[in-house]
Amino acid sequence: MTALVNVIVTLGMLYVVPAGLRLIDPAGLRRTARLWPLPAVLGAVSLWLPRGGAATVLAALYAAACLALAARAPSALPRGRAPGPAEVAVVTALTSPAVAGTALVAERAGHRLFGFDLDILALTVPHFHFAGFTAALVAGLVCRAAAPGPGARWAAYSVPAGTLLVLLGYFVDDWAELAGAVVLTGGMWAVALTTWREIRPAGRDRTTRALLAVSAAVLVATMLLALWWAAGEATGIPHPTLTWMAATHGLGNALGFALCSLLAWRRLTADHPRSADHPRTARQETTP
User: Fold this and answer.
1) Three-state SS sequence of the chain
2) Transmembrane segments in this chain: where (predicted)?
3) For the chain, how far is it from start to end, CA to CA, in angstroms?
4) Which of 2, 50, 196, 199 is positioned for an S-S bond with 216, CB 3.0–4.6 A?
């Protein structure tokens, strides 16, 4: 499991985060996105070293970059009004790598942070790169681009809420974590449905539409697995092992959802530069 998780996390560090930052704010985060591979390489190298001082130092440098990114999250909030669903999703995306980076430092140091097993800390790293950062980012983009309605708003609120509930479940019990998994799954399925119905048809070319279709379809299966695992942990019913979950749920979300989504949204925003700030513009211009 370790090698597979390391590959997934490396993808998240080196490509997913900087690509996502360009989608969040192409102008304001351009410098951060351009420089991100520097600390990301250090974090990725730390994954492959034995636990100890060298791995911990490299992980700490990556975590520092993640914390600096989280410090910029308040700038994404509007002034003078309550944040909307897309803005809540963006703030969640910007802060999630800090959770991943903190868990990485503890795991590389061999320290059971808050009493968690090292395997759980290791899996927290990909979870908050993908379920935290990428899922929240895509939920926000979908909310902006879709026609006004409860589905897209539910997605943009429930993905951050579900991610937070899963995190809180770590500290409470398996039933709380199951509740978080239910909320997160509902949000991810709302993202998938809205992507399939509204965003995919707006893709100008076949490749973009195919990437969006794959990202939506994959979520149906991977989040069912997440529910199965969480229910098994809470109730004791037979459920997949962590190794099996990494090879199915983890790999599917990393490649089928996250990578395909980011590639598709980059193509959408390349076709319509204004859509980086107002993605609904792209939908209106591409929909007959």
Assistant:
1) CHHHHHHHHHHHHHHHHHHHHHHHCCCCCHHHHHHCHHHHHHHHHHHHCCCCHHHHHHHHHHHHHHHHHHHCHHHHCCCCCCCCHHHHHHHHHHHHHHHHHHHHHHHHHCCCHHHCCHHHHHHHHHHHHHHHHHHHHHHHHHHHHCCCCHHHHHHHHHHHHHHHHHHHHHHCCHHHHHHHHHHHHHHHHHHHHHHHHHHHHHCCCHHHHHHHHHHHHHHHHHHHHHHHHHHHHHHCCCCCCHHHHHHHHHHHHHHHHHHHHHHHHHHHHHHCHHHHCCHHHHHHHHCC
2) 6-24, 55-74, 86-106, 126-147, 154-172, 178-196, 208-230, 242-265
3) 47
4) 196
What type of residue sits at position 129?
Answer: H
* Every domain of the chain and the residues it spans: 2-286
Residue-level pLDDT at 271: 57
CA dihedral (123, 127, 128, 129) positive or negative: positive
Tally of CA atoms within 13 A in the half-sphere of 129 that contains its CB: 39
Indicate the pTM of the whole model: 0.88
199 pLDDT higher than 60: yes
CA dist 191 and 221 (Å) reads 14
241-278 pLDDT, tens digit each: 988 998 999 999 999 999 999 999 999 987 555 444 44
